[in-house]
Amino acid sequence: MRTRYTKEFRIKVAKEASRPENEGLEHIIAQKYGIKPGTVSKWTRLFQQYGEDGLSKGKLTGDRKTDRERQL
After folding, report:
1. What whole-number distance in Å separates Cα of residue 58 and Cα of residue 19?
2. Using CA atoms, how far apart are residues 59 and 33, in angstroms rounded to an integer?
3. Which of 18, 22, 38, 55 could cross-link to 10 by cystine, CB 3.0-4.6 Å?
4. Mean pLDDT, residues 46-69 taken together
C-alpha cells in the first residue's frame, strides 16, 4: 500500500535535508521520519529545483508531462 504524505510534511523534510549541515545525511533524516532515503533525496531535489510548489500533490516528479504534451 502506498503512503501519502501531506505537502507540509514533504516541505518540512526537504527543508531539513537542504540545510548545509545535513548534506549527505539523507539516510539519517529518512530514519528520523520513518521514510526511505530515496524519498528524502527526491523531495530535496524537487524542493531545491522548484521550491515549495515542487512538492505539491501531483507534481512529485520533475519530469511530468505538461497538459499540452499529454494532449498530443
Report:
1. 25
2. 21
3. 55
4. 71
